[in-house]
Write a structure and sequence with these properties.
Elements: H1 3-8, E1 11-12, E2 18-21, E3 27-28, E4 31-32, H2 34-45, E5 54-61, E6 68-78, E7 82-91, E8 94-104, E9 128-129, E10 144-151, E11 162-169, H3 178-185, E12 202-211, E13 223-233, E14 236-244, E15 250-260
Antiparallel strand pairs: 1-2, 2-6, 3-4, 5-8, 5-12, 6-7, 7-8, 9-10, 10-11, 11-13, 12-15, 13-14, 14-15
Helix pairs in contact: 2-3
């Protein structure tokens, strides 16, 4: 099931609740791919957003997401310019994810600052496959085109953990909107995996993202992402990420906490 088909399969429930059967091709081991979990929660929050663009998302991955899941949004506060919405995702095993989304109207401001230049990387056409062979990688990754743009690949025994990639949804019907961007942003393996020398389990715990524009535009759905692990200690890694469009304009930043089992 591709991305647009998956969103079309979401079933409205009581109140603003949404339910979805997670397809097998969006799984990462025993849980759904984290970007999809976050995107399903954001989709459920939109009816309560008062039509304002999303500014930030805070996601806690509480338990394995599989089977039929339900997303129930709750309006926390609606002010003059901002709306806060929480979304709880549940399944047969209880609470699976907990999210808070912040929506905000654009405002006139005397400040205009952007200190997030995109790295010098090969163009999409000159970048090779991120995975060593076509079709390799986690099951969910087959829903994306992912090309290596710089840094180190997973399990290469690198001395640092810094990777840049070009990526996009494979589904040509995917819109350039906030839900699709959130569903894409978590596609790369954690940067710390570049330091691995053999396969090992990882698990995303929390994810915070900030949307830097309400106009999500790019060429042919491609975005450039750079993920950098800043710490890895006691079985946990903390990393940052930045995403740019094909014109080099930043569209998202984020931080992630990851459990590593090696």
């Amino acid at each position: 099931m591709n991305y647009s088909e998956l969103l079309a399969s979401i079933t409205p429930g009581e109140g603003n609740e949404r339910s979805t059967l997670v397809p097998a091709n969006w799984m990462q081991g025993r849980t759904a791919y984290g970007g999809l979990t976050a995107a399903l929660c954001l989709e459920a929050a939109l009816p309560l957003s008062a039509g304002l663009p999303i500014r930030a998302a805070q996601v806690a991955f509480v338990g394995p997401v599989n089977g039929t899941v339900r997303c129930r949004p709750e309006l926390l506060r609606q002010g003059k310019n901002t709306v806060f919405v929480s979304v709880r995702m549940t399944g047969d095993d209880g609470i699976l994810a907990e999210c808070i989304f912040t929506f905000g109207a654009p405002r006139a401001s005397s400040l205009a600052l952007s200190e997030l230049p995109s790295p010098a990387v090969p163009s999409v056409a000159d970048a090779g496959n991120y995975f060593r062979k076509e079709g390799h990688g986690p099951t969910f990754a087959q829903n994306f085109d992912i090309r290596f743009a710089g840094g180190s690949i997973p399990m290469s025994g690198a001395k640092d953990a810094d990777v840049s990639i070009w990526m996009r949804h494979r589904d040509p019907a995917t819109p350039n909107d906030a839900v699709a961007l959130l569903a894409l942003a978590d596609a790369p393996p954690p940067a710390a995996m570049a330091m691995f020398t053999a396969p090992a389990r990882i698990s995303s715990m929390t994810w915070m993202t900030e949307f830097l524009t309400e106009d999500i535009v790019t060429d042919e759905r491609w975005f450039l992402a750079r993920h950098t692990a800043q710490t890895a200690h006691n079985g946990y890694s903390s990393q940052q990420m930045v995403m740019w469009n094909t014109s080099g304009a930043p569209v998202m930043i984020g931080r992630q906490s990851i459990a590593i089992f090696t």
